Amino acid sequence: TQSEDADKTPEWLTVNLPGQKQPVYMLRKHAVEVQAVERPSEGTPVVETATLLKGTHYVWGGMSSQGIDCSGLTYQSYRRHGYNIPRDADQQFTAGKVVDPDQLAAGDLLFFGKDADHITHVGMYVGDGKFIHSSSSLGGVTISPFGEAKFQENFQGARRFLK
User: Is 121 a catalytic residue?
Assistant: First the structure.
């Protein structure tokens, strides 16, 4: 562990991490400049990001290519494009703009559960009546037809996060 004087030397950087009270230190040579993210106003780029994870295994609470859950998929896909949406499906359901199912556009989120107070699943509309989601029963990230009875029976609404 480096001392607090580390950030005063040209080879060390002080890094403040979310949720951590104490900073960490890293060698400046390992720092990478991050390009500004342009937030898209339509959903195709967000859908393309989600499809990069197609075939990834389902892992409850997962948020990476090593394993991802349904809300982790939507959260990470939006986050990659500069949108900070809530992490969990039930929280995502209470955010965003309500969208009529007849007006769905690529990137809109579709929510499922036994009722609106019990949202248990989320997916992202890709177009052509299909959506991408991470499903434990289907083995991970896959694209499914939104019109299937099992999805329609539990559909609780759609939300739009793009501005």
Answer: yes
Least Cα distance to 49 among 72, 23, 33 occurs for 72
133 is catalytic: yes
- For 104-148, write each residue's pLDDT tens digit: 999 999 999 999 999 999 999 999 999 999 998 988 999 999 999
Identified catalytic residue from 30, 57, 70, 81: 70
Q: Are 60 and 69 in contact (CB under 8 A)?
A: yes
Q: Give pLDDT tens digits for 59-106.
A: 998 888 889 999 999 999 999 998 999 999 999 999 999 999 999 999
Residues 6 or more apart whose Cβ sits within 8 Å of residue 100: 158
Residue 56 to residue 64: CA distance in whole angstroms: 9
